[in-house]
Design goal:
single chain; 318 residues; alpha/beta; Rossmann fold; 8-stranded mixed β-sheet; 8 strands; 19% strand; globular
Length: 318
């Protein structure tokens, strides 16, 4: 499997180093701790001018946290990004979300709401999606206080977060809630029946494997139907009325075909969408700051947001 040489050197070096004893497979806390610590090795540093605030909101008899980001000097009402972190629905938190989100709040610039949804397998579908919907409703209900421009909201997510972001767009449309003007999906998993050809042909040498992706999906689905469109947005009968999409996939990623099939389905439904396949890359590999790609993918994501907020993304529908 050909991947960008700096990444290949990194993975080869890790394979040659001393192996840490694997945690008990039922010790979810320890598995999450190790995975999150690894992610945070490349956590970005934000400007001191970026104001952050953690808020707890009620959700169905429990509580979840959201973190907001406000760039200095950005006047209300502000263009707003609603961000959903990845981690296979099993791991990740508000801190690792910053690794995936990167410089978007400052460079777009935009007010940002990041959601810390509850995790599987303790909280399988529909809990993570319901939590995202609750956080979105909280953002809309408090738009005036927060300074959110409800006519300029983008939804973004990475990996499992891309799945939740796409499913959230379906929920918002179906429930008649204020719609975003962009769905920005980074290596999204959108077919949890795992029927994409790339599940078996890609992700065999480094990074996310097809086996791991399948295990994460099973844990998230629980006893539900994997073909439910809120679980697998690719299986929605109707994708019309959804916001324009920018979808970024990696060549050597087991969920690569999910994103490309989604772009095709959106086109068939008359929804504007652009898809980008990044060559010689693994699942989300551009968060590792070793390659040219790691410099350019953030630029693409920032530009997509800037154009959406300026209403210049789709030349046929300004």
């Amino acid at each position: 499997m050909h991947i960008d040489p700096p990444l290949r050197m990194l993975f080869d070096g890790m394979a040659e180093g001393p192996a840490e004893a694997p945690p008990d497979p039922d010790d979810h806390s320890e598995i999450r701790r190790r995975a999150n610590e690894t992610m945070l090795l490349v956590r970005p540093t934000f400007s001191a001018d970026l104001e952050t605030n953690d808020v707890t909101i009620p959700v169905d008899g429990a509580e979840i946290a959201v973190r907001t980001y406000r760039p200095s000097g950005l006047a209300a009402p502000m263009p707003t990004l609603f961000f959903v972190h990845g981690g296979g629905w099993f791991q990740g938190n508000l801190d690792t979300a910053e690794v995936e989100m990167g410089p978007l709040p400052e460079r777009a610039p935009c007010f940002t709401v990041s959601v810390d949804y509850r995790l599987a397998p303790e909280h399988p579908y529909p809990v993570p999606l319901d939590d995202c919907l609750a956080a979105y409703r909280w953002m809309i209900d408090n738009a005036e206080t927060l300074g959110v421009d409800t006519t300029r909201i983008a939804i973004a997510g990475t990996s499992a977060g891309g799945n939740l972001a796409a499913a959230l767009c379906l929920r918002l449309r179906d429930e008649g809630l204020p719609m975003p003007i962009l769905q920005l999906l980074d290596v999204p998993a959108l077919d949890l029946t795992m029927s994409s050809e790339s599940v078996t042909s890609k992700g065999t040498g480094a990074g996310l494997t097809g086996e791991a992706a399948t295990a994460y999906a099973i844990a998230y689905i629980g006893g539900a139907d994997a073909a439910n469109p809120y679980i697998s947005p690719l299986f929605a009968d109707d994708l019309s009325g959804l916001p324009p999409a920018v979808v970024i996939v990696a060549e050597q990623d087991p969920v690569r075909d999910d994103g490309e099939r989604y772009v095709q389905r959106l086109h068939e439904a008359g929804v504007a969408a652009a898809g980008f396949r990044v060559l010689a890359q693994i699942h989300g590999g551009w968060i590792i700051p070793l390659t040219v790609t790691s410099r350019l993918v953030p630029d693409l994501r920032v530009t997509a947001l800037q154009r959406a907020f300026a209403r210049t993304l789709d030349p046929l529908n300004p």
